[in-house]
TrEMBL record:
It comes from Capsicum annuum. Residues 286-313 are annotated as: Disordered. Residues 297-312 have a biased composition (Polar residues). It comes from the Eukaryota. Residues 286-296 have a biased composition (Basic and acidic residues). This is UV-B-induced protein At3g17800, chloroplastic-like. Coiled coil: none annotated.
Length: 423
């Protein structure tokens, strides 16, 4: 695969009269199964200026449980505080967790534990019910009710995962980027009016993971990595694809880094992993297929990221990984995986996590209007263009990678209390 095949195709530098920079095609898909932009509607958080906590009975659906409830009085809810995350949670439990996040985020894990306990109780009760006999007239209705309840549980779990991810960002004192839209206060029309928090985001990863993240940024931004001030005009759809793929890359990275750190502590790392000068091309073969950069449609599972593509295929392109892509200890460690292990680690485990990535990305970038031409390619003429600095792009990618890392953590946490991840 040629240098920087990730992002270099659809923007031009706005504050310099130089030739339009070329940052490659878009090779981003879901890791494990195809990612698409969800068609569901998007809303923002309703502002909550102050929330009181009290112990009382709180009802969700037809079940009642004693829980910590965040209550809002009419006189206290009229503030104009900015939303804490782009996605509004809509289920009763999601709204409940939103109130706690706004006022007392440190109580979110305890509230989540209570709700997961209730979900376990509800699921056990449903499993004990006997399904009507095939001859009965109620079997269709019974199965429809079961399907509706399963969808409700899935949505609830998605929103629990989201609330826990947001809470981890709040614990790290990092604010999530708000929904992307041109700012009326910015004369140039730039969308990146958010503060730079790169140092905080990089500090949330191990040194080995940060080396991999720098390679990821180099693949995306190329020689613009150190240029934070130049402004580019970029397809909003492309930026959304990069963001979603970076979430999945962060998920994969946290997963392999946990294993790496454990084996490093136990001193059982594979031979050669500590060799910083180990050649990537010696570890891998030479048989990866080239990627058609003109195709902007979503890719197959093994082509979600140029690095994952090369690992899965067992090789690199004849041109190598390009200037600035360096061998690292963690990269060499991943190279030691067999194909089956790599595919397993590069797969998002639950439908709930996949759905949450889709909804968060759509809440951040909006629902894209994708038109397929008769030739089967994506018509880019309807792409919305946004103005954003390269520093803003870096901030988005760092946030997305961290989001994916947190997603792996909270998915594991929730699954330890409510088993929902497929084997």
């Amino acid at each position: 695969m040629e240098t920087a095949t990730v992002f270099r195709s659809s923007f031009s530098v706005c504050n310099r009269p130089t030739k339009a920079a070329s940052l490659g095609g878009s090779d981003f898909t879901r890791v494990g199964s195809q990612l698409r932009m969800s068609p569901s509607g998007i809303k923002l958080y309703r502002s909550i200026s102050h929330v009181r906590l009290s112990n009382r009975k709180v009802s969700f659906g037809s079940k009642k449980s004693t829980a910590i409830r965040a209550s809002v009085s009419p006189s206290e809810s009229g503030g104009s505080a900015a939303p804490i995350a782009p996605l509004q949670l809509e289920s009763p439990i999601g709204q409940f967790l939103t109130q706690i996040l706004t006022s007392h985020p440190h109580l979110v894990p305890a509230a989540v534990d209570q709700q997961l306990e209730q979900l376990n109780t509800d699921r056990d009760a449903e499993q004990q019910k006997e399904e009507p006999s095939p001859a009965g007239t109620d079997i269709v209705l019974y199965r429809r009710i079961a399907e509706v309840k399963a969808n409700e549980r899935k949505k609830t779990l998605e929103e629990i995962l989201y609330a826990l991810v947001v809470q981890k960002f709040m614990d790290a004192n990092v604010s999530l980027v708000p929904a992307i839209s041109p700012s009326s206060s910015e004369p140039s029309g730039r969308v990146d009016t958010w503060p730079s928090q790169d140092d905080k985001l990089e500090g949330l990863h191990s040194p080995e993971a940060n080396e991999m993240i720098q390679n990821h940024l180099t693949l995306i931004l190329g020689n613009r990595l150190g240029d934070n001030s130049s402004v580019a005009q970029i397809s909003k759809l492309r930026v959304g694809q990069v963001y979603a793929a970076s979430i999945m890359y962060g998920y994969f990275l946290r997963r392999v880094d946990q294993r790496f750190q454990l084996e490093k502590t136990m001193k059982v790392l594979p031979q050669g992993v500590d060799d910083e000068d180990n050649s990537i091309q010696q570890v891998a073969g030479e048989d990866i297929r080239s990627v058609d950069k003109s195709d902007t449609s979503f890719r197959s599972p093994t082509q979600s990221h140029p690095e994952l593509s090369s690992w899965s295929a067992g090789g690199v392109s004849p041109g190598g990984f390009g200037q600035g892509i360096k061998p690292t200890r963690l990269r060499n460690y991943v190279m030691s995986f067999d194909g089956e292990t790599l595919q397993r680690y590069a797969t998002i485990r639950s439908r709930e996590a996949i759905g949450m990535i889709e909804k968060h990305t759509e809440a951040l970038f909006g629902r894209p209007e994708i038109v397929i031409t008769p030739q089967g390619t994506v018509d880019s003429s309807k792409d919305e263009l946004i103005k954003i600095s390269f520093g803003g792009l870096k901030r988005l990618v760092l946030e997305a990678v961290t989001f994916g890392s947190f997603l792996w953590d909270v998915e594991s946490y929730v699954d330890s209390r409510y088993h929902f991840v497929a084997n």
